[in-house]
Design a protein that fits this description.
single chain; about 280 residues; alpha+beta; six-stranded mixed sheet; 12 strands; about 40% helix; about 25% strand; globular
């Protein structure tokens, strides 16, 4: 096991679940002396995280994870639009991550997401004992594919559906345009006014339309730059992701992360086989 712990990502196997959940991850360390911390950055894909046997202390910067030696389950959901969030580990931990596609969680909960969350990182109790029980089964299972099937089965059972065509179309247009579509054009295309669009985004995504556009543009540029590595200059990244120019990209990146692309991108580590990029401070 390395200094970052063991980290595995896997896609859902069930076709319906895979529409709304991008991937699962399993992050673990069995070293009592484990000490590390990482930062993660704003994303338009949100994650539900489940810890076993840990005490989680929420701080202004993020969270502190410490071993408690008790077989407890603790769940959190993060909607991160504008923060560099720090997670610090002390000792043994065992963590499951469920990364939802845009509007993914909305298909598994009744009512607006905004009714469940009010801060960036929230304790998540919506599914109650049902999720805790499934998590225990997952933790007790050593076969990784069977773990995925257990999680898939839980979300199939809890599928509700989400029938809000305006915001679904709005999100798709933003994703298709890489965040470059103008709000007035979006409003005209969907035949709703800006105020209605803002209300829908606040209600179902806990952010404004402009914040969401900015998230998509930033995150896609970050993913592209990390996948291209040294094969893409800042200008390449900027133009590919529909920024006006390199200066626009750098300014936007700094406004989100408080660091320049040159400073931050070289520090990021990709974990697993999906687009999980964290900044570890070993």
């Amino acid at each position: 096991m390395d200094s970052k712990g063991d980290f595995i990502t896997l896609k859902p196997q069930h076709e319906q679940v895979a529409r709304y959940i991008d991937y699962y991850y399993f992050h673990v360390s069995d070293d009592p002396g484990f000490r590390n911390k990482f930062f993660f950055y704003p994303n338009y894909k949100h994650a539900l995280t489940i810890y076993k046997g840990s005490d989680i202390t929420l701080t202004e910067e993020g969270s502190l994870v410490t071993q408690n030696g008790v077989d407890t389950i603790d769940c959190f959901y993060s909607i991160n639009t504008d923060k560099n969030i720090k997670v610090e580990f002390h000792g043994i931990f065992n963590k499951i991550g469920i990364v939802f596609n845009p509007l993914g969680l909305n298909h598994f909960v009744k009512g607006p997401v905004a009714d469940i969350f009010n801060i960036t990182v929230n304790r998540f109790s919506y599914f109650g004992d049902a999720l805790n029980t499934t998590a225990q089964y997952v933790y007790n299972e050593t076969d990784i594919d069977k773990r995925v099937k257990l999680l898939d089965a839980f979300f199939v059972e809890n599928f509700i559906g989400f029938d809000e065509p305006v915001i679904k179309r709005a999100v798709q247009e933003i994703l298709n345009s890489n965040g470059s579509v103008k709000v007035e054009d979006l409003s005209g295309l969907l035949k709703v006014n800006r105020k209605t669009l803002l209300r829908l985004f606040k209600k179902h995504l806990c952010c404004s339309v402009e914040e969401y556009k900015k998230l998509v543009m930033f995150r896609n540029a970050l993913n592209y730059s990390q996948q291209a590595k040294d094969g893409a200059s800042l200008t390449d990244v900027a133009l590919y992701n529909l920024y006006y120019d390199q200066a626009h990209y750098i300014k936007h990146f700094k406004s989100v992360t408080k660091q320049s692309p040159k400073t931050l991108l070289s520090k990021l580590t990709r974990l697993g086989s999906q687009e999980t990029y964290w900044n570890f401070e070993d």
